[in-house]
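Quiz preparation item.
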């Protein structure tokens, strides 16, 4: 796990559980889950209390998904946080 990490990675609400290299993969999963539930970006962003541009940037891997926002989005999508994180975790396991 010697990846370049941008931003705070850890346990605080504004930290991220993902290395920057995983942001795009996690964003794709998030977008897929949102679309499977028939939600528009605007709907999910408003429900989670975040800006539409921030959600769009997360979905395109340009911004980090913090622990706090991960919890809010997972709740609004009706999925576990691990469902959003799974692709990044699988990649970490296969790389070890």
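Solution:
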């Amino acid at each position: 796990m010697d990846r370049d990490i941008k931003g705070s990675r850890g346990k605080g609400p504004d930290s991220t559980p993902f290395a920057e290299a995983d942001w795009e993969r996690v964003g794709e999963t998030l977008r897929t889950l949102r679309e499977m539930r028939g939600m528009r970006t605007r709907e999910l962003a408003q429900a989670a209390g975040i800006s539409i541009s921030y959600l769009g940037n997360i979905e395109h891997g340009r911004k980090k998904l913090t622990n706090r926002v991960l919890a809010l989005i997972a709740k609004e999508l009706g999925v576990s946080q691990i469902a959003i994180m799974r692709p990044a975790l699988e990649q970490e396991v296969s790389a070890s």
